[in-house]
Amino acid sequence: MVEMIEYPSAQAEIRLSHIATRKMGADPSLEKQVLGILETVRDRGDSALVEYTRQFDAPAFNGKQLTVSEDEIDAAYKKVDDDFLAILQAAIANIEVFHRNQLRTSYFITRPDGTFLGQMVTPVASAGLYIPGGRAGETPLISSVLMNGLPARLAGVKDIALVTPPRLDGAINPYLLVAAREVGVTRIHKIGSAWAIAALAYGTASVAKTDLIVGPGNVYVALAKKLVAGEVGIDMLAGPSEILVIADHQANPDYLAADLLSQAEHDAMASSVLITTDRRVAEQTMQSLGRQLLQLPRNEIARQSFENYGAFFLVADLDAAIELANRIAPEHLELQIRDPWSYLGKITHAGAVFLGEYTPEAVGDYFAGPNHVLPTAGTARFASALGVENFLKRTSVIAYSRSALERDAHAILRLAELEGLEAHAASIRVRIK
User: Fold this and answer.
1) Do 14 and 70 belong together in one domain?
2) Which of 117, 242, 275, 414 pairs with 426 at a CA distance of 20 to 30 A?
């Protein structure tokens, strides 16, 4: 099901190259199809949204259902249990505590000569959150609502729109509705896939356009975000999920197998990689993987994921393991080694790092506090987790007095003249005659 490969080796390079090439939306014909959906929604608005939703989600859907009503939200609160509400509030508290540290403030610098410089930090006016349907709405992705909505609220975004595909009956799962209200979402629309992204980017009669679109989704969503980027802001082009676990001789094979499966069950394009210094650990993990796989409802998806993009790499020591992990730049990186803290400083490329055998990736997905919307497919080399800063803008502020302008005039004139921009230079000369 999964290869055991020594690293470095020619075989390892082949497998690494194969894993690195798994990107969503590489098919030009698919991109053309998504472009057609975007143009249809831009041209036809609500009628296109209703037609697509009828075709793919809810056959009896109508235009009056595009926006969730207050009555629907009130009814949702009556359907969820108290235990869920308590867990939801605890998760919200953890995520808020972590993300409050990301808040930025405006700053200003003044000088005796009258120079005034500064930066104003303000939130975007509106943000759209895309939340996938989750098995036709039967498995609501509550964690995605929290991780996308709370940073927007903390940033101070006034208009927070959530889009998600409806269930077959045209409704939204009550647990998702309650989570959305609790995190501060101001409007919810029952639309999914590329047509939801189009509505947020261009606007329709029922769906006001937003300035920013964030959130995960399938290949159609990823391509739609890519194509509207520039028309609106986007968070990132997230690809299939991935996990990389580094293990030494003392690692528990059952823990390793369980954590690798936690990503493999997402979809057949997910990647689960183990890097270990111990062949015995690798062999026992593979055996445990086979046993645990049989218990998973999504076992066929997980099996395909391992066959397609899984790997067990055997390395000489932990330094080699860290070097390989930095090269892969994984979305999730677990250090299941004796002293993970001593190696944390050597990690340069990872979306999130999980330290020790009692910190599985799932604690970050749901409850610990850090954001679970993370860079994938090697983009952790330059990208970061979703956060409050994604919803903030920075505006520079500049004010010069006459004496300050006279002081800097020569420098500005010289640089403008070197660039051949005479009008720039003239705007200085006219003021210092």
Assistant:
1) no
2) 117
Q: How many domains does the chain contain in total?
A: 3
- Give tens-digit pLDDT for 204-230: 999 999 999 999 998 899 999 999 999
Q: Identify whether residues 271 and 286 lie together within a single domain.
A: yes
- Report H helices in 133-276: 142-155, 174-183, 193-202, 219-228, 253-264
- The CATH number of residue 145's host domain is 3.40.50.1980
Residue type, 273: V
Q: Are 349 and 334 in contact (CB under 8 A)?
A: no
Of the chain, the end-to-end C-alpha distance in Å amounts to: 79
Q: Mind spelling out the 3-state secondary structure of 350-361?
A: CCEEEECCCCCH
- Give, in order, the Cα–Cα distances in Å from 274 to each of 13, 313, 325, 426: 15, 6, 10, 63
Dihedral, CA of residue 179, residue 184, residue 187 and residue 191, to nearest 10: -40
* Active site residues per annotation: 331-332
Closest CA to 378 of 344, 345, 331: 331
Last residue of a domain, one of 179, 202, 234: 234
176 and 68 together in one domain = yes
- To the question of pTM greater than 0.90 for the whole model, the response is yes
Residues 73 and 50 in one domain: yes
Give the three-state DSSP class for 233. strand
What whole-number distance in Å separates Cα of residue 96 and Cα of residue 354? 20
Strand order from edge to edge, sheet including 126-130: 187-189, 159-163, 126-130, 212-214, 233-234
| Distance (Å, whole) CA 381 – CA 184 | 32
> Could you tell me the CA-to-CA distances from 313 to 16, 75, 147, 291, 344 in Å, in that order?
10, 51, 32, 21, 20
Q: Do the domain assignments include residue 339? A: yes
Same domain as 180, residue 306: no
My answer on whether 268 and 126 are in the same domain is no
| Any domain includes 378 | no
Question: For tokens 């194969």, what's the residue?
Answer: 18
280 and 230 both lie in a single domain: no
Whether residue 388 is contained in a domain is answered as: no
The distance from CA 138 to its chain's CA centroid, rounded to whole angstroms, is 22
Assigned domain for 145 exists: yes
Does position 83 have pLDDT exceeding 70, yes or no?
yes
